Amino acid sequence: MTDLRQCWADGTATHGLWSLLPGAVTAELLARTGADYVVVDLQHGAASEADLPGVAAAIRSAGAVPLVRTRSPLFPDVGRPLDLGAHGVIVPNISDAEHAREVIAAARYAPDGGRSIGRLSGGSDEPLVILMVETATALDDLDALLALNGLDGIYVGPGDLSLSLGLSAPDRRDDLRAVLSSIIARAVAAGVPVGVHAYSGEDARSYADEGATIVTVAVDTVSLTDATTRHLDVGRAHRSS
């Protein structure tokens, strides 16, 4: 498996996939593409915590790092995926630096944090903790957040951030893009790994060109729909001709 923490410390970009579909077979297929990491989304995806031991093992056996976006930033929701095989968590709905400090502590054993001992399957002795910046309050407190001990990276959710900032309208797209670029630049200047959620390799590459090193290049549901639609269009064109 790729040592994500070391790659980011070296300034090397890592490339991963985001999974909303359930099942170990799906997870293994994604990991076998050569991705550095696969994120299992418990917040909006169809997988459940009960799936995690098998899913994480399948990702790991195929050579990728299993990460989990947690259901919430609550204490049990942060620690439980780490007990069930995740090598790191991406935690949503961070409100500010003080909240972020509490979330980091939920993923660390004492004396660095308050995580309860009870790891059941796989996992990591030093799990990655990546916090999502997707609210106006987190953005307002970004400098303090970036300075926190124990933070392995930040991950920007452009959709929710656009809603929080009032920039979701199509004519505000350039304004949102400027905000995203500013976040990347500030994280890079602070020496903190940063990623921006993307649904295509083209978008992901544009963020990487600005310095992002947590580079999610595709989401399984989007890629499946796009590829299937393309094949249907080709097949139907042949039939109609």
UniProtKB/TrEMBL annotation:
One of its GO terms (molecular function) is lyase activity. Residues 16-226 form the HpcH/HpaI aldolase/citrate lyase domain. InterPro entries: Aldolase/citrate-lyase_domain, HpcH-HpaI_aldolase, Pyrv/PenolPyrv_kinase-like_dom, Pyrv_kinase-like_dom_sf. The keyword Lyase applies. Pfam families: HpcH_HpaI. Keywords: Lyase, Metal-binding. SUPFAM superfamilies: Phosphoenolpyruvate/pyruvate domain. The keyword Cytoplasm does not apply. Signal peptide: none annotated. Belongs to the HpcH/HpaI aldolase family. PANTHER family: 2-KETO-3-DEOXY-L-RHAMNONATE ALDOLASE, PHOSPHOENOLPYRUVATE CARBOXYLASE FAMILY PROTEIN. This is Aldolase/citrate lyase family protein.
